[in-house]
Amino acid sequence: MARRTDRDDPLSTLRHSLRRLRAAPGAPDAARADLLGAVEVALFRLPPRQREIVRRYDLGGESAADAQRAMALSPRQFFRDRHKALVALSERLTFAADSRVPSGGAPPNDGSPIRTIGLGSDATLAGRTFARSLAQAGSTQCLRILGTLASEASDPLKRTDLLLELVETALDFNDENFAAEARASAAQILSDNVFAPAMADWMQGRLARAQARVSPTQREGAAELARSTAFLQRSIAAEPGLLEARAALASALGDDATLRFALGTFGQARAVSSAAVELIAGFGLTNRPRSLEIMAMHSVIGAMISGRMQTAIAEVSPLLQRAAESGWSSTASRLGAVLVGLNGVRGNYGEAIRWYRAMTPLASNGAKPSDRTGLTIEAAHSYTMLGQPAEALSILGYVRPGDGSCPRTEVPDWHALAAAALDRLGDSATALREANEALEGYRAQRLERGAGDAHRLIATSHAKLGNGRAAREHLSEARRITESYGTPYQFLRTLTAEAKILRNPALERTAVEYATLLSGLART
After folding, report:
1. Could you tell me which of 497, 483, 500, 493 has the C-alpha nearest to residue 514?
2. What is the pLDDT of residue 123?
């Protein structure tokens, strides 16, 4: 029987990547460092024996015979376990561009220039510019101005364009009812009029992206984003010279990457995010606030896969500087929240709080509610981990669900952070109620990654309340979910909780080893 080629072997890319890591010792370049970190982090999701085989044979270069003798394994068992390990790793890592990820296409090669669409008079352009500046300043007056401009526009295409910008802006301010009215008006115009194919698909793509943002679950949102990217690619194919469709596609891809990250499919999130960043760089879209946010999220996803937090911080800091220099205060607040989160994840809680305190005056006076919530949620984690849970609960009170300041999608996170802070304060009964609220919210949104965190918090509260059986049941569920969908840092928290509650020395040693690895990677 002929040996199958690498082209027929789905694990060939992974094997070649591991071989490159082994063949290139010494100081790694950025790409190799990302890959090495991603592999080392992912190895801890494997059973200990499979992890040891990959370390010895694939990364260490030890011969199969020597590894088999050292581990007391038969050749058949050795290679069976290695195959299982490589299959599991291939599901968690992305080493090459995913051909299913939509791209923005190459610039037109027929000599035609990239151009923008003129949609409005000088007065409309001035009004839209003013509305955008108010939106960046966190003022809801931007909605009134955009609504007036849309109602006064006589041309159906221009009115639809303004309505769709109104929809996007209203959603940024968590006003889903206002957005729904504007979206319905835009959809009606599109159904009543015949536009050029490129224009119609551009509008339909934006409409689908707006629907994705209000979908009740993340998976329904993913389906709408798939429709959005299909429309936008078709618009680009019809008129390759138009820039707006490419900017809209970059935004849709950025949303898709964030969504996939929330769903725990980190390799897919990285591939989609890379496509968005390449589109932004290739077509000069870095002069737009949304582009800076997409680029920052790309750095976050990369850091979560490779563990290299300091690298992400170094990438996001100049984006914040650019936002500040451009006067984009709301975008600056969002990027500041990213830096708070990155410092918190790498364990530098003092630096995270320093960033939070520096950004709070800006966010209080010049940011959208969702940006203020994001900044507060990131800081609450660091206050809790720093041993100041009362301060965490205090700042969470400013963005309490129900008062309009906490976006619907962030409500489960709020309850989870409140549970963590209450647990640190010793109020296990109230912490348990908050953790159950978080679990219900994550289940409603079908967010497995969040549900795993909630199960861990519930297990911890039950253990402190003396409910050992319930604690073990929730621990088991937390481990099952987090192994598949959790970030490396969520997995570490689950390991640590499991070791502590079960009093398992082997788990304690694994948790310490994993924490040491993540701490070392975070500083690179």
Report:
1. 493
2. 79
